Amino acid sequence: MADIIPLAKARKTQRKKKASGKTMCKSGFHKWTIDQSKQFDVRSGRLVTIRRCERCAETRTTLD
Predict the structure, then answer these.
(1) pLDDT value at position 44?
(2) Which residue of 2, 5, 23, 25 has the fewest C-beta atoms within 10 A of its own C-beta?
(3) Exposure of 11 in the CB half-sphere (CA atoms within 13 A)
(4) Pairing mode, strands 40-41 and 32-35
(5) Any idea what DSSP says for residue 1?
(6) For residue 36, is pLDDT > 90?
(7) pLDDT value for 48
(8) pTM of the complete model
(9) What's the pLDDT tens digit per position in 7-29?
(10) 62, 39 in Cβ contact below 8 A?
């Protein structure tokens, strides 16, 4: 037969797995890296720097 595990332990490990790497971002501590794929904004005709968070993939744009 299968091993029996407590329900509370299973739920705790599921929650930890789901939230891994995102809890810091929810608190505002992103891990920004520069995205080199798009450096030119076509509408305004300027160079831009796109920063993408490694953990949650949120983007932030700054003008150069």
Answers:
(1) 73
(2) 2
(3) 3
(4) unpaired
(5) -
(6) no
(7) 85
(8) 0.57
(9) 898 899 998 888 776 778 888 89
(10) no
Q: Which residue's entry shows tokens 């501590």?
A: 29
One-letter identity of residue 12:
K
Encoded amino acid at 29, one letter: F
d(CA 18, CA 63): 34
DSSP secondary structure string, 16-63? Answer: HHHHTTTHHHHTT---EEEE-S--EETTTTEEEEEEEETTT--EEEEE
Q: How far is CA 51 from the centre of its chain?
A: 12
CA distance 21 to 19: 6
The token pair at 46 is 């300027």
Place of tokens 């798009």: 38
